[in-house]
Amino acid sequence: MSEPRWDRLLLNATLATFVGDAACGLIEHGAIALHHGRVAWIGHMDALPAAPNELALTVESLDAALVTPGLIDCHTHLVFGSDRAQEFDLRLNGASYEEIARAGGGIVSTVNATRTASEEQLFAQSLPRAQALLADGVTTLEIKSGYGLELESERRMLRVARRLGRELGITVRTSFLGLHALPPEYQDKRADYVALVCDEMLPALVAEGLVDAVDAFCEGIGFTREETRRLFECAKQLGLPVKLHAEQLSDLDGAALVAEYGGLSADHLEYLSESGIKAMATAGTVAVLLPGAFYALRETKLPPIALLREHRVPIAIATDCNPGTSPLLSLRMAAGMACTLFRLTHEEALRGVTVNAARALGCHDRGTLAVGQRADLVVWKAKRPAELCYWIGGSLVREVCVGGESVTS
Ligand code: DI6
Ligand code: FE
Question: Does this model's pTM top 0.85?
Answer without folding.
Answer: yes
